[in-house]
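Re: the request from the purification team.
They wanted to know what the chain is likely to look like in 3D before they choose a buffer screen. I agreed to run a prediction and write the result into the notebook, where they can find it.
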Amino acid sequence: AIPVPYNHSNIDSDEILYYVEGNYKARKGITSGSISVHPQGIPHGPHPGTVEASLGKTWTDELAVMCDTFRPLFPTKAALDLDDPQYPESWRADHHAPLEHRNGTAGADGAATAKDSSYWAQ
């Protein structure tokens, strides 16, 4: 068995996970008490390399509670205030270009652009 979930989209439900305790292997930056929400249709899954690292493992040291809702979740204002605008970027591998580089523009730091092949050689 592969103890780390694969990339997927929930086409009929929203998904919410509460990470109770342990060493959550599929997602960097998850600690006890973390909550993640994946709205219907949004692709999500493990960080790059975590599935491969889980191959051959017979158990994991983690406890999480997942709920799939078959009616949409509507966040409260308090929840929206906690939204992390950089969250989508946290799913990319270090070797992938940040989103702002994919359209050929430089980031605020003036880093190389997607049109600059030297960026991809890093």
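For the purification team: The longest helix spans residues 50-54.
Please add any questions underneath this entry.
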